TrEMBL record:
PROSITE patterns: PROKAR_LIPOPROTEIN. InterPro entries: Ig-like_fold. Gene3D superfamilies: Immunoglobulins (2.60.40.10). Residues 1-19 form the signal peptide. Keywords: Signal. This is Choice-of-anchor D domain-containing protein.
Amino acid sequence: MVRKSLFPVLLLGAPLLFGACSDEPAAELIIDRKSFDFGEWEVGKPSGEQLFTVRNNSPQDVESVSVSIEGSDTFVISSNTCEKYLAAGLECELRVRFTPRLGGASSARLKVAGASSVLQTELQGTGFAWVEVTSMPPGTYVDAGDDSFTCTQPCRHAVRKAELTLYAGPEGFPTWSKACAGAPRGGCQLRLDASKSVALEAWSPVYQWEVRRSSPPVLVAPLGDGRIVVQDALGVTALDGAGQERWSLPLTATAKLAVTSDGFVSLLRYDATVTQYDRDGRVRWTYTPEVFSSAGPAGQMVADVLGNTYVLLAQGSNDTAVVTKLVVLSREGVETWSAVVSEAQITYPLGLGIVGNGSFVYVAGTAYNRGPAPQELVFVKNFVRKLTSAGAAVWTKERPWGDVAFSLTGEMISVISIGSPPGGFRVSWMDSEGNELWNSQTPQGKGPGVVDTYAFPAHFDPVPRLLFGGHELRPGIETYGRGWFGDMGDSSKLSPGPITYIDSPSGNGAWVSTLTYADPARHVVVGGGFGDRANPTEGFIRLYDPRALTTER
């Protein structure tokens, strides 16, 4: 190797100093490969060592050599002879090991410094973890959230990602072993920093039983002890806590049904006769009013917590006048008092509510005057009137509502559905004095669907909460999609909880026509139909787990 430096030269007796000019190549360090893939290794277990050679590929010595790995601590230099000085043309060696800490791909850079430029080799490796599902209840399955596998029996799969969420099916409420962290929709979230074993220890279906019927139910109501009563176009049926029939009444032209707190069933027929049945379906008493009108909307009926029955009827004739008459019947079916409500020439009943102990009664109605043509009615107003337990009016307020529902604390809601797909609604909530607490609408185009039924569940809920049910509208066409139901909030605000959807087994649409709590534990009994209201193909009744109202699925 020729080295040039500065030196003095005497020329004509004068000393001159020349600058040195060098054409020597710069020092160069090279690694024997530009990239290397360690392949797949189980998380937490080291790979074999991989040898890398560094060569000083220049005629100059390198005074200081250093090697490092940047980008990931899963690659580690396990041995190294490339330290400091490396003579021209000589080589040094280092060994690298890959130990994945999480599932998934890792990458880093092996860097060699000491020459004029920094050289590097790209390192890659993939970690995997075994995910073993050790057990599951019969009839269930486990799905990987990334759709990589499904287990219908105990199974073991290699997973190449840092996290994985498992879901149990069919739809329900799973209980996982301790290896799982909670995840939305009842999932089991695993951080794959090692191979994991999990068990699906228990599973509860979303609904505990289902009864199919030829006709969709009009009303479901609790009878106590987990039993329920169902009203449909064919009559009234009592079911036990397992959905088995206890008794039935094959009635026709039944208008309304109410259940007392001790499980007696009152039926209001279209001829205005009220019959009450005991818990075994036997007649207790029958009440027939002196005068009634079959014109206009059907009557209303509720029961207070003391066992009294309140009946709201249209009385009179459209040719002369129609008033709304409230009749209060004792536990023995004896009329204790009555009141007439009239706000125009024709006043039809629209809704009926009571404070739980009967201290106040709320009557909602719609008022019309007769028009110039026969049978023509001119709308006047919708209203609600608060009455004392003796029938005296406390106040009357006008409101632009349609159907209404009352809680046992005297609060009231009115709902207007949004008829454009996928459907939605506007809700107004009033306190017991008729003052509006809030008025809110679901986001445009966000659903969950059209409202077909709503209720304040009676007897079991001292703090009123609102249950809604209905159906989705399919985009572009006004046909039924899935049925749905959910808890929509309380007197503080509209606050939709998790929505439970109901699919038709034939894909022809579904809807929820009635729902309530079945017991103090808040199992939800839901009735509805498949098809649509104009062309129902079948009815159903289901008893849902209480978590259906609170747990996202």
